[in-house]
Amino acid sequence: MRLSRYFLPVLKETPAEAQIASHRLMLRAGMIKQAAAGIYSWLPMGFKVLRKLENIVHEEQVRAGHIPMLMPTLQPADLWKESGRYDAYGPEMLRIRDRHDRDMLYGPTNEEMITDIFRAHVGSYKDLPLTLYHIQWKFRDEIRPRFGVMRGREFLMKDGYNFDVDHEHAMHAYNRHMVSYLRTYERMGLKAIPMRADSGPIGGDDTHEFLVLAETGESEVFYDSAITDLSLGNRDIDYDDWDQVALICNEWTKPYARTDETHDAGLFEKVPEDRRRTSRGIEVGQIFYFGTKYSEPMGATVNTKDGEKVPVHMGSHGIGVSRLVGAIIEANHDEAGIIWPEGVTPYHVGIVNLKQGDGEADRACEDLYAALTRAGFEPLYDDREERAGAKFATMDLIGLPWRITVGPRGLKAGVVELTSRRTGESEELAPDLVVDRLRGIYAGHL
Ligand SMILES: Nc1ncnc2c1ncn2[C@@H]1O[C@H](COP(=O)(O)OP(=O)(O)O)[C@@H](O)[C@H]1O
Ligand SMILES: [Mg+2]
Prior knowledge:
- The chain is an alpha+beta fold.
- It folds into 2 domains: about 10-335, BirA Bifunctional Protein, domain 2 (2-Layer Sandwich); about 345-440, 3-Layer(aba) Sandwich (Rossmann fold).
- The chain has helices at about 20-30, 45-65, 75-85, 85-90, 110-120, 165-185, 240-255, 265-270, 295-300, 320-330, 360-375, 390-400, 410, 435-440; strands at about 30-35, 40, 65-70, 75, 95, 105, 130-140, 155-165, 190-195, 205-215, 220-225, 255-260, 275-290, 300-305, 310, 315-320, 335, 335-340, 350-355, 380, 400-405, 415-420, 425-430.
- The strands form 6 sheets. Strands 3, 7, 8, 9, 10, 11, 12, 13 and 16 form a 9-stranded mixed sheet that branches. Strands 20-19-21-22-23 form a 5-stranded mixed sheet, sandwiched between helices. A 3-stranded antiparallel sheet has the order 4-6-5.
- The structure holds adenosine-5'-diphosphate and magnesium ion (MG).
- Magnesium ion (MG) binds next to β13.
- Adenosine-5'-diphosphate (ADP) binds next to β8, β13, β16 and α10.
């Protein structure tokens, strides 16, 4: 992409309505525009990041054996009357009446709809285990939407639902989700800590929330610092291996980590003092096992091997995809702007031409642009007639992790400059070496 042809409406002023860094930076970097309270348009740069996160979520879900599909945003109220949640859900549910006077709603979640699909098509234990998921917009009429996309009213969520023959199988599905979520966040450059949670209105027995540590988080969190040293790295994971998956879950759930809702001061005391941490966190996902809470009232049953008819054991598992954009920025920014982790950056590298219109500089930039594109990178070339300072400021604001600076003086010496947004460190290298250098940097992320 060339900046001269892109749509990147950056703001010079700091928007007064934005209280936290991610909201400010998303507005300033031209990623989103508010349409109504808690409802946003995703401008091209924001949309690009959102799509990247969606892709990572899809890849990790499919890797875990979960099956993508798509359910509508609008749902008939009847399904929710069957489960008993139509009245229970309260004013957060946006209720709509269509022209035939039918009660509809904009889905805040999809347990009822997926259970209805399941009961219509599945009747035997032989069709299990089954986990279906989708990534779809949700609407919750939050009383106080705030912090931009972090607490919106309309937001993008991955929600997945497992159907299993009994509690034991459903717990493997639960563990599988935990591990696939850990991988997902790790690829996004995030440390998200699973914390034992309260089940809340969805109801259930086993549930963990995943929290990203950030000063601006809405939850208070208490944890053993040992948990932040854990990482999956390049481990080979066989999602059908119950023991391997359970062992990974053990590793992550053994160290103490809880939100204020489930915090147990007595247990926390047992953590060695030098490892006790109190902080704040952003909830970026949650997994639930809730057994037969929906399958029983809605009649989602299967016949077992012995010919017995039993309600299926279910769980639901969510990732806040649009919230993650904000959470990643909260965890990765500085005074000058965003600092995208390599796994989610909207463009891999920025090219800054210090002297637009200079034949040699222009040619060098074009050559780099072509070579990078051929190698599978997406460069963003600032080819505007702007001062160098303004170009640097834009690059710092939008946060591409790497910048190539090209100018007549360097070219005379046979070099361009490669700068890390995170460390600010630069190295000079021959233009021919840039592609290889970036290949090394982006290994595993392209
Ligand atoms: N209002 C919201 N705006 C943005 N993301 C949200 C919102 N509500 C929930 N999410 C995201 O969706 C994920 C799954 O939702 P869920 O756990 O059902 O929500 P909640 O924790 O509010 O009950 C949450 O972990 C969070 O990341
Ligand atoms: Mg939650």
